C-alpha cells in the first residue's frame, strides 16, 4: 500500500478538494491519505489561540467567524454530508466560551489541531459522496506522543501497535497530519509543518511501498523559486542529502520525515498536484550525491551574541547553561559559533519564544542581538556560488563544513 500526503495548499479551496479526489480515485483501496489543515488555516487558528488566551473576546469572535466562513465556503461548493464539520465548529465555539484552563502550548494544541480535523472531515465526506469507500481515521487515537505540547515526541512502539490494526484494506483511509495524543488523552501537535512526518510514521508502521507528498511545486528544487530565478528540479536525491536539505530549512519536506523512511528503505516521492502526471522527485538509496549546489534561504533571522558577565570563557559549563536556556524556551538553533569570550547563535525570530529566551539569557550573560537578518545555506557550494549570493549583502557570519556553507547576512538593497 501507499501513503499520500496532501498539504494545506492542495486543499485550499473546493477545486483543490476535487483535484485531490481525482488523484486518489486512480489509486487502489488500502491507500492512506494524510491531509493538512486547509490553506492558511493553521495560521488563522494560531491567531485565534493568541486572542483567546489573552482574553480578547471581540478578537476571538472575529477569528472564529473567519475560520467558520472559510470552511463553510468550501463546503458550499462541494456535495456531501458535512454534519461532522459543523459539529467540530460548534465544539470549538463552545470550548472558547470557557476561560483558558491550561498552559498556552496545551491550549494551542487543543485548538490548532482542529484545522486538520475539519480538513479531513471535508475530504472524507466528499470522497464518500463520490462513491469511494472511505474510512476516516482519528490520528489522535493512533499517534501516541508524550506531553510536549506543540512538539509532541512520538512513542513509536505504542504508535506502531495502534496503526498496524487501524487501516482497513477495503477502503481509502483519510487521516490528519500533524496531530497526536498524550497517554491521558490530550491532543498534541508534532511541530509546524508536521504532516509530512505523520505520513512517514504511517508508512513506517504499515511497511508501505512508498510515500508521496503532493505539492504545489514540481518536486524538490535546488532552491525556492520565491527567492531564486533559476531553479533546477532534482530528480533523484539520496536520503542523506534530503535530510541535510530539510534540516537546514528547505521547507519542501519536514526534517523528521526522512529518517523513518530511510530505516525501512521506503522511497519518498515529491510530486505536483497541479501536474499529477509528472514524475517529480524521488528520494531513496542512491550512490550519487547531488551534483549541483542547493540553496536554502531563511528570512527573519536574529543573531544573538552572548558574553559572560564575569571573566569566564565560553567553555563547557557556560555552554551547557546556554543550551539549557534554549531548550527551556523551546527555541531551535539554526547556526552557532563561539570564540573564547562570546557565543553567537542564529534563530528564527519567533515572537512567541524569542523575547522569553532573551530574558532567560540575560540572567547569566550580557546579550546583544541583531534582527532582520537572512540565513543562506548552500549545500555543495563553491566560491562562485558564494560570491553570487553575497551580491548586495553584508556578511556577518560564515560557517563552512566540507559540503555545506552557511552565511548570515544583512540585505543592503
Ligand atoms: N497544518 C500544519 C501546519 O501548517 C501542519 C502541516 O501543514 O504540515 O503547520
Ligand atoms: Mg500547513
TrEMBL record:
EC numbers for this chain: 2.7.2.4
Record's protein name: Aspartokinase
GO terms under cellular component: cytosol
Binding site for substrate: 42, 116
Domain Aspartate/glutamate/uridylate kinase: 3-272
Catalytic activity as recorded in UniProt: L-aspartate + ATP = 4-phospho-L-aspartate + ADP
UniProt GO molecular function: aspartate kinase activity; ATP binding
An example Gene Ontology biological process: lysine biosynthetic process via diaminopimelate
InterPro entries: AceGlu_kinase-like_sf, ACT-like_dom_sf, Asp/Glu/Uridylate_kinase, Asp_kin_monofn, Asp_kinase, AsparK_Bifunc_asparK/hSer_DH
Keyword entries, A-Z: Amino-acid biosynthesis, ATP-binding, Kinase, Nucleotide-binding, Transferase
Top-level taxon of the source organism: Bacteria
SUPFAM superfamilies, per the entry: ACT-like, Carbamate kinase-like
CDD domains: AAK_AK-HSDH-like (cd04243)
Binding positions for ATP per the UniProt entry: 5-8
Pathway annotation: Amino-acid biosynthesis; L-lysine biosynthesis via DAP pathway; (S)-tetrahydrodipicolinate from L-aspartate: step 1/4; Amino-acid biosynthesis; L-threonine biosynthesis; L-threonine from L-aspartate: step 1/5; Amino-acid biosynthesis; L-methionine biosynthesis via de novo pathway; L-homoserine from L-aspartate: step 1/3
EC top class, as a word: transferase
Family from the record: Belongs to the aspartokinase family.
Amino acid at each position: 500500500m501507499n501513503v499520500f500526503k496532501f498539504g494545506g495548499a492542495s486543499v485550499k479551496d473546493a477545486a483543490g478538494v476535487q483535484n485531490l479526489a481525482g488523484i486518489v480515485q486512480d489509486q487502489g483501496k488500502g491507500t492512506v491519505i494524510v491531509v493538512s489543515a486547509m490553506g492558511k488555516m493553521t495560521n488563522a487558528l494560531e491567531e485565534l489561540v493568541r486572542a483567546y488566551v489573552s482574553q480578547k473576546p471581540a478578537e476571538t469572535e472575529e477569528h472564529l467567524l473567519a475560520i467558520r466562513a472559510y470552511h463553510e465556503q468550501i463546503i458550499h461548493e462541494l456535495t456531501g454530508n458535512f454534519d461532522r464539520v459543523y459539529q467540530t465548529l460548534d465544539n470549538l465555539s463552545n470550548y472558547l466560551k470557557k476561560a483558558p484552563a491550561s498552559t498556552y502550548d496545551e491550549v494551542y494544541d487543543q485548538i490548532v489541531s482542529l484545522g486538520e480535523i475539519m480538513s479531513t472531515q471535508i475530504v472524507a465526506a466528499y470522497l464518500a459522496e463520490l462513491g469511494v469507500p472511505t474510512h476516516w481515521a482519528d490520528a489522535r487515537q493512533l499517534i501516541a506522543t508524550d506531553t510536549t505540547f506543540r512538539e509532541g515526541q512520538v512513542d513509536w512502539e505504542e504508535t506502531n501497535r495502534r496503526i498496524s490494526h487501524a487501516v482497513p484494506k477495503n477502503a481509502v483511509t483519510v487521516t490528519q497530519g500533524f496531530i497526536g495524543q498524550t497517554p491521558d488523552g490530550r491532543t498534541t501537535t508534532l511541530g509546524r509543518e508536521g504532516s509530512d512526518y505523520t505520513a512517514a510514521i504511517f508508512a513506517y508502521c504499515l511497511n508501505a511501498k512508498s510515500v508521496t507528498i503532493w505539492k504545489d511545486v514540481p518536486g524538490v528544487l535546488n532552491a525556492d523559486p520565491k527567492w531564486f530565478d533559476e531553479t533546477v528540479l532534482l530528480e533523484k536525491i539520496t536520503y542523506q542529502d534530503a535530510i541535510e536539505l530539510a534540516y537546514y530549512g528547505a521547507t519542501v519536506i519536514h526534517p523528521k520525515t526522512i529518517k523513518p523512511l530511510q530505516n525501512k528503505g521506503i522511497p519518498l516521492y515529491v510530486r505536483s498536484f497541479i501536474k499529477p502526471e509528472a514524475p517529480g522527485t524521488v528520494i531513496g538509496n542512491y550512490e550519487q550525491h547531488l551534483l549541483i549546489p542547493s540553496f536554502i534561504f531563511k528570512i527573519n533571522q536574529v543573531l544573538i551574541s552572548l558574553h559572560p558577565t564575569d571573566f569566564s570563557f565560553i567553555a563547557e559549563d557556560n555552554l551547557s547553561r546556554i543550551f539549557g536556556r534554549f531548550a527551556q524556551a523551546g527555541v531551535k538553533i539554526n547556526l552557532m559559533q563561539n570564540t573564547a569570550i562570546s557565543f553567537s547563535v542564529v534563530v528564527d525570530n519567533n515572537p512567541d519564544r524569542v523575547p522569553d529566551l532573551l530574558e532567560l539569557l540575560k540572567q547569566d550573560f550580557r546579550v546583544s542581538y541583531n534582527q532582520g537578518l537572512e540565513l543562506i545555506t548552500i549545500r555543495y557550494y563553491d566560491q562562485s556560488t558564494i560570491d553570487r549570493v553575497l551580491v548586495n549583502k553584508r556578511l556577518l557570519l560564515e560557517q563552512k563544513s566540507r559540503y555545506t556553507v552557511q552565511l548570515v547576512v544583512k540585505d543592503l538593497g
